[in-house]
Amino acid sequence: MNNQPNNIAEMVYNAVMDTKVVDIHTHLFSRNFNQLLLWGIDDLLTYHYLIAETMRWSDITYDEFWSLSKKDQADHIWRVLFIEHSPISEACQGVLTVLNELGLDTASRNLNQYREYFSSMDVSDYIDKVFDLAGVESVVMTNDPFDHVEYPVWMDKGAGDSRFQPALRLDVMLNSWENAVPQLKQWGYMAETDFGDKTLSEVRRFLKDWIVRIRPVYMAVSLPSDFVFPDDSPRSRLISECILPLLAEFNIPFAMMIGVKRSVNPQLKLAGDSVGRSNIKSVEYLCANYTENKFLVTMLSHENQHELCVTARKFRSLMVFGCWWFLNNPSMIDEITRMRVELLGTSFIPQHSDARILDQLVYKWKHSRRVIANVLIDKYSDLAQTGWQISNDEIKRDIADLFSGSFKTFIGR
Ligand code: FIX
Ligand code: ZN
Q1: CA of 172 to the centre of ligand 2 (A)
Q2: 26 CB less than 6 Å from ligand 1?
């Protein structure tokens, strides 16, 4: 074993760069989902992160912006964020990392040339290329049974590509029960807005049908920053009386993404959601009282990160994952990952991409890997200072746990 600091840095760096990732939360779809699979330069440029940044500079009205075609929106965003100002934000740099990794000339600033590249691409070849460049083994989708485009695909041929794994997302049911009820009725599940035993058993039947139909790796919900459990809301009753018992029976984790404030600026549409601090007590309560269940949890606010980590030390049924959304920036990933390693060793999932556009896998993982590698180099170097001898295989084992192994073990597959 060569425990010299330079050698450790090289071993850790190589392992982080070479280890394939299971990306446990994305908004990507396989080819079977047709228009839901987004890729290419115009989709990259019209990502909602960039729309929010553009509108800070732009003087066009929200209505004018939304009335533009996707190509015209992309032209506008390119001009405002990349030509009239320097593209140094994380989301802007992400677009350039993608182009650069694809071998395109970012110095040319020639948007139409980039468009030509993508229009000559076959989508199947492109999916292979992106997974390869990003070093991603598989991604977990966000599958909403209430989505009218997704629904018929599940009723027919399903995802059809094992690199795209299903996750059953229940936001409609848990965050707007009044909207879920008429749809459930239309599908033949006899649910009513006021809860009775019949409604609860019909919701359980609905969920069971979907578990069997799509075989999700987890069930998921994004929760508002003021999420409280238990309370007297439909959400609490659905979680405690339908979701958790069923998930325990099927040995499937419940993923909670906590801390969103939806539509703070509705004019920005998807870009108008924000963040708020949440109360960790609800997570503690769930872990302490539902001991047959497993919880995957990420929280959105910076302020919640430390207490979430401490809670994971108390409950092995709690798996902390990712630096979500406004935390998916190098400075935040650095700080949060350092703290997690210090408190949890390697028993957490450091990152997910949340990619909405296929190509984003390339930049989100390249940027995250860079930061995670630096954190781990520091930690293994500190370890070496104690005289502990570490082998290359042990480093690779640990990084495989972080990037895929812990998740696979946690979901039991
Ligand atoms: O609720 C979620 O899964 C969020 O990640 C998204 O809805 C959000 O819009 C997003 O894209 C964040 O990265
Ligand atoms: Zn997401």
Answers
A1: 15
A2: no
Shortest-distance ligand to the CA of residue 170: 1
Ligand number nearest CA of 257 is 1
Tell me, using a 6 A CB cutoff, whether residue 288 lines ligand 1.
Answer: no
Radius of gyration of the chain (CA): 22
Q: Which residue has the tokens 């040995």?
A: 251
C-alpha distances in Å from residue 328, one per residue of 64, 142, 311, 321: 30, 18, 21, 12
What residue owns the CA closest to ligand 1's atom 12? 325
Helix axes 305-314, 330-344, angle to 10 degrees: 20
> What is d(CA 348, CA 344) in angstroms, rounded to the nearest whole number?
7
DSSP structure class, residue 348? S
Q: Is the CB of 270 under 6 A from ligand 1?
A: yes
**At residue 89, what is the residue type?**
S
Residue 64 identity (one-letter amino acid):
E
The CA distance from 379 to 376, in Å, is: 5
Reduced to 3 states (helix: H, G, I; strand: E, B; else coil), residue 158 is coil
Q: Is the peptide bond before 230 cis (omega within 30 degrees of 0)?
A: yes
pLDDT tens, 186-236? 999 999 998 889 999 999 999 999 999 999 999 999 999 999 999 999 999
Reference 92, options 62, 57, 66; nearest CA is 57
C-beta of 144 in contact with ligand 1 (< 6 A):
no
Catalogue the long-range contacts made by 235-239 (C-beta closer than 8 Å, 24 or more residues apart).
235/174, 235/175, 235/177, 237/195, 237/200, 238/173, 238/174, 238/177, 238/203, 239/174
What is the Å distance from ligand 2's center to 284 Cα?
A: 23
Give per-residue pLDDT as tens, 304-352.
Answer: 999 999 999 999 999 999 999 999 999 999 999 999 999 999 999 999 9
Question: Whose CA is closest to atom 2 on ligand 1?
Answer: 222
pTM over 0.85: yes
Ligand 1: does its nearest atom lie under 6 Å from the Cβ of 83? no
Whether the CB of 356 sits within 6 Å of ligand 1:
yes
